[in-house]
Amino acid sequence: MKYLISIFVCMMIMFFLMACTTDHSFKLDEKQQIIVVHNLLALEIESDSSHTDEGPSFFIIKENPYDTKEFDTIRLQGQSTGLKIEKFDSSGYIETQIINLLPDRRYTIIHSGMGGRVRIQEFFWTDSLGNLRVDPTRKRIVGYKDLRGA
């Protein structure tokens, strides 16, 4: 009986270690205006403004939660397929397939899920045309950290 329990515990530890090392990063391709996400769980694009009329926020998950694709592509100019996108602005929540970011704004993108390594936060800005650009003045945050001092 002890032998079976030991095997079960070892298998659970291996499972948790494998889950923690899965790549959940994302990268913006500025030229194509797409975000490539590894193992998409839940991605949020939030306006850095506290006023909802100064920029919409988007919540993105897979349309099919059982989809096992390793990469998902989120198009910032055009429709994204296979994804469920909810837009939140001053008028409330609506489902959409198009992400429309306002020009000359700051945005934060957060890929989150279960576990500390899965939360990745990166900072961006939009140019005068509404194209998303990486903010080189702020560093990516991985895991749950105290953001009060940031």
Mean pLDDT: 82
Helix content: 10-25%
Shape: elongated
SS elements, strand count: 11
Series of secondary-structure elements, N-terminal to C-terminal:
HEEEEEEEEEEE
**Rg over C-alpha atoms, rounded to the nearest angstrom:** 18 Å
| Quaternary structure state of the chains depicted | single chain
State which percent range the strand residues make up. Answer: 35-45%
Count of discrete alpha- or pi-helical segments spanning 4 or more residues: 1
N→C terminal distance = 51 Å
Provide the low-confidence segments as ranges. none
Helix/strand class: mainly beta
The largest sheet is:
8 strands, antiparallel
Task: Describe the SSE topology.
Elements: H1 2-21, E1 26-29, E2 34-38, E3 42-47, E4 57-62, E5 71-75, E6 83-89, E7 92-96, E8 106-112, E9 120-126, E10 132-134, E11 141-142
Antiparallel strand pairs: 1-2, 2-5, 3-4, 3-8, 4-6, 6-7, 8-9, 9-10, 9-11
Could you describe the 3D structure shown?
The protein is mainly beta and 150 residues long. It is 13% helix and 38% strand. It has one helix and eleven strands; from the N terminus they run αβββββββββββ. The strands form two sheets. Strands 3, 4, 6, 7, 8, 9, 10 and 11 form an eight-stranded antiparallel β-sheet that branches. The chain has a three-stranded antiparallel β-sheet with strand order 1-2-5, with no helix packed on it. β9 and β10 (132-134) form a beta hairpin. It is elongated and about 65 Å long. The model has no long low-confidence stretch (mean pLDDT 82).
